[in-house]
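Section 5: illustrative case.
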């Protein structure tokens, strides 16, 4: 399953890169002073992983407000800037400019995200069955940091249990130069259980066992 996730991520990277170049070109037609705004994206929506991507435009000014601006189906802009007339004008002009982004980028990324989510769901179900615990898989897919290191966090919980920084610990990890897999459990989890979970991840997720 890890192999499948990495293959999809690899497919997405050139699409993300090309779309990023086009988003910046479109933005520079509107934003004259380059240093005033930073352009991030396209990024995968952290909540709506299967049906939305977004570009983030951030102003360097103070007292900023974040605004979600729909561009077209499956694509929106997060505009972070101070509330003043000049920034509102830029926001509106950016919306018009970004409507010219080719639909192929949006549809390709959303299609890849849907496949990615299917594999994540399959991974969660497989590891949950093996451990008899609830499993949540989180990744940094769609964030700029994913190009440098692909982070996968696998959280194990019991029913009605929520993990926080205070009540959790790492059960172990697997790392290489481009991928980091970290297992997170309740801080009172016994060592033997942590070892079992590591074995499960190595067998079913990394090794692709049945």
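Designed sequence:
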């Amino acid at each position: 399953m890890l192999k499948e996730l990495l293959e999809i991520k690899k497919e997405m990277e050139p699409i993300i890169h090309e779309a990023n170049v086009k988003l910046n070109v479109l933005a520079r037609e509107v934003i004259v002073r380059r240093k005033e705004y930073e352009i991030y994206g396209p990024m995968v929506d952290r909540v709506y992983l299967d049906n939305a991507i977004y570009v983030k435009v951030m102003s360097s000014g103070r007292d900023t407000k974040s605004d979600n601006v729909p561009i077209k189906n499956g694509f929106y802009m997060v505009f972070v800037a101070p509330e003043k007339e000049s920034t509102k004008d830029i926001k509106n002009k950016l919306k018009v400019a970004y409507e010219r982004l080719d639909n192929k980028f949006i549809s390709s990324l959303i299609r890849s995200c849907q496949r990615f989510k299917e594999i994540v769901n399959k991974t969660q179900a497989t590891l949950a069955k093996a451990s008899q615990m609830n499993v949540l898989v989180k990744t940094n897919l769609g964030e700029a940091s994913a190009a440098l290191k692909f982070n996968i966090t696998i959280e194990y919980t019991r029913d009605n249990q929520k993990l926080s920084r205070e009540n959790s610990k790492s059960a172990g990890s697997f790392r290489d130069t481009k991928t980091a897999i970290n297992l997170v459990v309740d801080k009172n989890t016994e060592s033997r259980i942590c070892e079992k979970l590591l074995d499960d991840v190595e067998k079913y997720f990394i090794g692709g066992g049945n």
